[in-house]
Design brief:
about 15% strand, 9 helices, 8-stranded parallel beta sheet, alpha/beta, TIM Barrel
Length: about 230
């Protein structure tokens, strides 16, 4: 199973060095902040390196942006695209995500494309039309990406009630959508994942792994979740 560790804007330089030692021998995908990418560019490690984002522009004068080609040259193999926080705080659109996916695959970076669901959509979109709409950002000629379903109302939350039946329904819908288009991508889940629910989440149909953030910052949580998904 795939395990993606999204570190967001957490950890300082010294913390990062310690963190690298913690996951050095683990088969995970780690997503640090841009300044810390080189701390994880270790050829003897078991993990793979990813970035939390990349530019929708392939090249050009866009100060502050980070292009896919530059990330690939630093050993980045994966890139998170379309996270709900990017959509909410930076107004990213479906077209932005499509451009980023294209830039990633053009530079041999595997996109981890986030499909999100708000609490309003959970309550009102029983036919999962918004899920299908977000899937339309995936070009049909892309050979392989990872699709991450993340309900926004569960991200970063503790002591939550997870609707396992609903998550199962969404994962199956995503899988059916892919099969109809003769696509064979991986599907992972994120949102409130911790040691208290990992065993139940593993039972969900069509699930190929998990993306975690809050739990990714806790040594004991990482160890237990990693052990659980590798048993």
């Amino acid at each position: 199973m795939i395990l993606v560790l999204n570190l967001k804007m957490n950890l300082s330089r010294d913390n990062i060095i310690e963190y690298e030692s913690l996951i050095h021998d683990k088969n995970v995908v780690v997503l640090p902040q841009y300044p810390y990418l080189l701390f994880f560019n270790r050829p003897d490690s078991a993990y793979s390196l990813g970035s939390q984002d990349l530019s929708k522009y392939a090249k050009g004068s866009y100060t502050g942006e980070v292009c896919a080609k530059g990330l690939r040259s630093l050993g980045v193999k994966y890139a998170l695209i379309g996270h709900s926080e990017r959509k909410e705080y930076f107004n990213e659109t479906l077209e932005d995500c499509r451009m980023k996916i294209q830039n990633a695959v053009d530079n041999d970076i595997i996109p981890i494309y986030c499909i999100n669901e708000t609490i309003e959509e959970y309550n009102n979109d029983k036919d999962l039309k918004n899920i299908e709409y977000e899937l339309e950002a995936i070009p049909n000629y892309i050979k392989y990406i990872i699709i991450a379903f993340e309900p926004t109302y569960l991200i970063g939350k503790d002591n939550i009630n997870i609707d396992y039946d609903h998550i199962n329904k969404v994962m199956v819908r995503i899988k059916d959508w892919l099969i109809e288009r003769h696509m064979n991508h991986s599907i992972i889940y994120g949102g409130g994942v911790d040691v208290s629910n990992i065993e139940e989440l593993k039972k969900i149909n069509c699930i190929d792994g998990f993306i975690i953030s809050s739990s990714a910052l806790d040594k004991d949580e990482i160890e237990k979740i990693y052990k659980s998904i590798n048993d």
